[in-house]
Amino acid sequence: MAIKDILTPFTAWKKVFREPVTVKDPLNDRPGAERYRGFHKNELKTCIGCGSCEEICENEAIDLVAVKGYDTKDGDSGLRPMVDYGRCCWCALCVDVCTTGSLTLSNEYTWVAEDPEEFRFVPGAENKEWDNNELGWKKPTPNYEFYGQKRQTMEELHPEERDHSFIEMIKGYSKEQAQLEADRCVECGICIATCPANMGIPEYIKAVREDDMEYGLKVLYETNPLPEICGRICTHKCETVCSVGHNGEPLSIRWLKRYIADQVESADYKRILGTDGIENNGKTVAVIGSGPAGLSAAHYLSLLGYKVTIFEQFAQAGGMMRYGIPEYRLPYNQIDKDIDYILSLGVDIKYNTRIGKDITLSELRDKYDAVFAGTGLHLGRSTGIPGTDHENVYQAIELLNKITEGKEIHVAEKIVVIGGGNVAMDITRSLARLQNQKYGRVQMIATALESEENLPADVEEVLEAREEKAIVNAGWGPKEIEIKDGKIKGLHVVKCLSIFDAEGRFNPKFDEDNKNFFEADMVVESIGQGMDINYITEDIKAELKFGPRGRITVDENIQSDAKWLFVGGDIIQGPDVIHGIANGHKAAYGIDNFLKNK
Amino acid sequence: MTNENKNHEKFLHEENKIREVKAPDGSIIKVDPLNDYFLDDRPEIKKPKTNKIVEKFLNWSRAESLWVLGFGTGCGSIEIPPLMTPRFDAFRFGVAMRPTPRQSNVFIISGYLAVKTLKRVIRSYEQMQGPKYVLALGSCTINGGMYWDSYNTINRLDHFIPVDVYVAGCMPRPEALLAGFMKLKERIKAGRGEGANEYAEKFDWYKANQKKIINDWNMPDYNW
Amino acid sequence: MEKKNKSSIVNIKSSIIDDIKSRFEITDIVHRRDNMTFVTCEKQKTIALITHMKTNLGFKHFVLLTAVDWIEDGKFQLTYILNNPKQKLDIAVRTMISREEATMETAHKLWKQIATYQRELKEMFGIDFPGSPRVDENFILEGWNDIPPYRRDFDTKVYAEETFFPRPGRKTNDPAEYMKKNLHK
Amino acid sequence: MKEQKNIFNRQPDRSKYPAKKKNGKLDIDLSSGKFVKLWHGPNHPGVTGNMAIELTLSGDEIVDAKTHVGYLHRGFEKLMERRLWIQCFPTCIRMCVAEPDYNEYLLAKSAEELSGIEVPEMAEWLRTLVLEMARLQSLLRTVPGQAGTLSLGIGVQWGVYLRDLVLDLFEELTGGRVYHMYIIPGGVRGLLPDGFKKRMEEVLGKIDEFVKNIENLMFNNIVFKKRTKGVGYIKPSWVNKYGIVGPNARAAGFKRDVRKDYPYLVYDKLDFDITHETDSDIFARSMIRKKELVLTLDLIRQIMAKMPKKGDIKAQTPNVLHWKIPAGETYVRSESSRGEYGFYTVSDGSTKPRRINLRGPSYTHAVVLLEKLLINANIADVHSIMVSLQTCPPEIER
Q1: Neighbors of chain D by Cβ distance (3+ pairs < 8 Å)
Q2: Does the pLDDT of residue B173 top 60, yes or no?
Q3: Which CATH architecture does the domain made up of A380-529 adopt?
Q4: Chain B: residue nearest C163 by CA?
Q5: Does CATH number 3.50.50.60 belong to domain A284-378+535-596?
Q6: Per the CB < 8 Å rule, is A116 touching B144?
Q7: A173-182, A536-545, C103-112: which range is least confident on average?
Q8: Of chain B residues 78-97, which have a CB less than 8 A from chain D?
């Protein structure tokens, strides 16, 4: 208790002469720091309304609401987040999880109001003063992710291993890989609307994640009776809109579907799907063609109790899936797995029966309660350029048919394929394999009207074709096949500038000065297929209506104007498998409605 | 007036229950502590002065002397010390802290209110001198905020006491709180700071709301 | 040097576990870390075990007591975490008690603060500790007349929505459903 | 350990008064007029938090004290049971307003330990930095706050200003002023901004000066000494009996510090000694906190010097929207400015925690111990004693 103890506290007085620390104008002098988490901003144009922000918000502060000027379309739900500042806690998890990176926080932090109802707003849509603030919280970079951005790499055969045989090249996911891949899903469900069959994608991905294959299979069969096939060759439009793909790589939805189907033994299908002992309702339906549309219709009709008979022109079922798609992409045993299950539901199939030749459509009309036609596109189209009548000019579809049937086909040393679609890639790669077997090297050129960026074939198809040493040279219009001494010398092409005119009609423009010549002694045309509906006799045709490109007009139930006839698949939509499946599914319910009300 | 709600009886403290007491002369007196020890008048509505100039002057003086009750109810109270100390120095804006409700006219509800605190807040609010104002901080007072699904915090403050100004944030910074005071001043000067009268007018509605969630209504209906 | 420390703590721990194993029936031994182990003991022996650990094994510091509701099994798990400040070692003793008759022997005589934990458990889980000081008084809640809130069968969201007037006027759309409505053919 | 003689106690000995009843209880008859009930709280102006102490007084001496908590109860432990693991992260922070970062760290640590995720080294350093900054800002309130309870407000004015400067730094680094939400399961949410080191050094320099000033103002102040020495004495034997931890235990001569005893994050790479006092009264506890403040300044400087320049800030976790943490339970602890602060976490293997229980130091300090310490204290010392235990009600009731 020294005198010091009494005096030292007074040293505080020396602070009297220090400059005051008071902020002069606190309301304006202190903007939030660079990373400050203030009020929300949203780039409405980038936002796709996936709802991840809503899902992660622990306070249920975010609602998804429709905003004027942003319509629902593929890959965009048309909804935008609305934030309730009576709930928000400014944690910015919504920003960090945002799949597109559109949502951020500004550094503005003052919002005072007398009315409590004011504190709800759609960021970006209401012209708030902080909409243009540069500063504020953004998702930290790099290596700061709430879900995996990278796909699990799918193991496939090396080009050297695969380029001379028809073994399946994609190996499929292991359990670990599939679960890691499935883990990336944010369960927004934006993909569902884009899938032609509206499959429950997030649901079956969840089944993969939770390793519940039986549930996964049930989800698959709700909308798609050909999962093994679709899991391999679907055009996976869903993946193009996947919200995870905006910042990283989209989910491998197709491979996950395949994973589920691969895990379940075909012997267990009936037990899992509960399809034993379906009661027959005594009504019969004829299905023409055992392609995806026909099989899908047959499957769902059988589940509804109808007795279905399929008429197939070839010796085996599957249609284009078997006869159009090469085995290295879709092995025949996998096709059989899906088809055998459908046939096991009590579906009859008559092989080698062609409508119009072995039995007429009117006979079917009289014998069955309803008819579904899913006959597909089996006629190859020709470019019609000079030289196409040569014997070594082939139609891709015919060649693919023959390869499937195991027939010997002509394989030249140098081949040019005209066309840039998936079928063109299929024939290119099939022929490349045959060339490898025969000559030990590949000399394939695929040429297309479309430019490199607009090639209709899937990106990976083109990539893999190139890996197999085929050349894909896009942007050329075929002019003439040069024939000398009765032998094909090659194909003359000119640069294609544009394909469609201002009205969107097919009207290619060429640069006649920019020429090229592809040497070849065999040419394959693959510029699309046409339908063969000659089996529809004139009297029936009179009952039908036809739309553009000769397609039969159907209503939303796939029902044609001849009420007993339902039409689906490539001949009305597509061409691809998944549209066929969707059509078949709809037709089944359409037929059921039609027959119940008859 | 009191002890009407049967639900409350279960939680009534022993000393507040109605009981019989023997007077020195031997007579039995019935005692209802909640009724007998407090006045049970209802709050009065105080009409503004008819003279516009006088009323304007009064409002100006009210707005420039905001005396805040030192009762931090939630997280937001941690931003009150910075506000009252040299850096933000709210005193220069006429904002001062007072320790008791009797001396203050502004109540800062600084965030969530647990049911147990709400009861004290209501008592304190009723004891404050009118005209009195309520400043609500943060999400919690607007629509429940973080604790929207909690069994022990209220979601909407305006159901229990009238609120003048809301400040968004979780929690709001001292600057935002200061902006809230500015807004409150504006409101008072414009003659809209009528919270106390609103409370008196809709007294029954407020009481019903309060009693719905405060189970042990261990106090008189109105404390002033 | 560091490695030696690590192995010595494991040795000490295993000798302690061996000691209590020889005296009490303990099951489910889970080694969470080098210096942290969870053991399960039956209800009747638990307090004796804790007392033994405190008096004979140097577990002087009581870390916490809390309960976990395993409603599926009809059990409450009580967890007593004890710390040996000298050896820097934690052992957590778990015991399962019936959910129907949720009572447990009080341990407030061992450490004073246990009385507080037991008051909280009584209020929040409805687990009774006869003889514990002030155990029947309100601790946190006031005027609570529902089932104890920390029990799993109490749904706080439903309770809050029924009781606290959530601000009306909010409506949300599920993207998938909304797109289904607008886009599916 | 010798018990400190109570040299400054000006109270007459009333230890025999009130008399005890036969059953051992105190004979307190309020109607006798000898005793008065006084409620201390629950309202508070932002110093400790809402909490009430029901005091029974005889004259100005306290003969009985009962604490009442629950004014800040939000039911976190229940709320977290119905939130995803990632959603618990913003929720759990609010369990303690004064130092929210320890909650973030403990939740992250529990989740990482149960699911076996390794955190990048850079993130570990940043976490340590943030935790020490949190301790710094908390101590800047409590060290002068102790003098504030004796109406020596000037230290509080300085402290709150400096705390605000630390909060500004927090805002730069984490984006939040009070609730930082920075330590996320898997890592942290950002690297140091440019020029942060320099600004940090500036603020630390100001705090250095503040420590000197506060020394003059408080610890060499005759009033402060008289009012705090010998008051609120905690017997060393109580430390284990009442579960006393942290500065309060260290002031009683126990060298216990989680940072040293169970090194977490990068504390084993930092060079420091456990603070130590023996007097175990309010003065000693204030002294410990001042020493802690100095230590924290030193630790922050060490961290800033030793920290790597760059590195990954977050390990890749499973998709947080459906992150399942393997079933199991754990207890993780850290040393907050109040002492051992721990999370007991139980996971049942689902996307949501089964139970998270917080072990806060105030839970043991501010209920049973406070009730004990208040007996025979003077009414004017109630607040000092409460603050000297660094009472934080939100962590008691959560």
Answers
A1: A, B, C
A2: yes
A3: 3-Layer(bba) Sandwich (3.50)
A4: B213
A5: yes
A6: no
A7: A536-545
A8: 78-82, 85-87, 97
- Residues 6 or more apart whose CB falls under 8 angstroms from that of A302 comprise A278, A308, A342, A345, A346, A347
Residue A79 has its nearest CB partner, among C169, C175, C183, at C175
Whether D1 shows a pLDDT value over 50: the answer reads no
C contact chains, 3+ CB pairs < 8 A: A, B, D
> A145: which chain D residues are within 8 Å (Cβ-Cβ)?
314, 316
Domain ranges of chain D: 76-362+378-384
A26-132 matches A284-378+535-596 in fold: no
May I ask the CATH class of domain B52-213?
alpha beta
ipTM: 0.84
Phi and psi, residue B2, nearest 5°: -90, 175
Domain at A26-132, CATH from 3.30.70.270, 1.10.3720.10, 3.30.70.3270, 3.40.50.2300 = 3.30.70.3270
**Domain limits, chain A:** 26-132, 159-271, 284-378+535-596, 380-529
Q: How many beta-carbon contacts under 8 Å exist across B and C?
A: 60
Task: State which fold the D76-362+378-384 domain adopts.
Answer: Cytochrome-c3 Hydrogenase; chain B (1.10.645)
CATH class in words for A159-271: mainly alpha
Q: Are residues A94 and A57 in contact, defined by beta-carbon separation less than 8 angstroms?
A: yes
Q: What is the pLDDT of residues A461-516, one digit of tens each?
A: 888 888 888 888 888 888 888 888 878 888 888 888 887 777 777 788 888 888 88
C63 touches chain D (CB under 8 A): yes
The pLDDT of residue B6 = 52
DSSP D319: P
CB proximity D368 to C under 8 Å: yes
Instruction: Yes or no: say if B192 and A113 are a contact pair by the CB < 8 Å rule.
Output: no
Query: Per the structure block, which two tokens stand in for C151?
Result: 């029990």
> Which class for D21: exposed (0-12), middle (13-18), buried (19 or more C-beta within 10 A)?
exposed
Alpha helices in D215-281 (DSSP H): 222-228, 238-241, 246-250, 258-261
* Angstroms from C183 CA to nearest CA on chain A: 6
Digit-coded pLDDT (tens) for D294-343? 999 999 999 999 988 888 888 888 888 888 899 999 999 999 988 889 99
Contacts with D, B 15-74, CB within 8 Å: 69-74
> Strand A79-84 to strand A120-121: parallel, antiparallel, or no bridges (unpaired)?
antiparallel
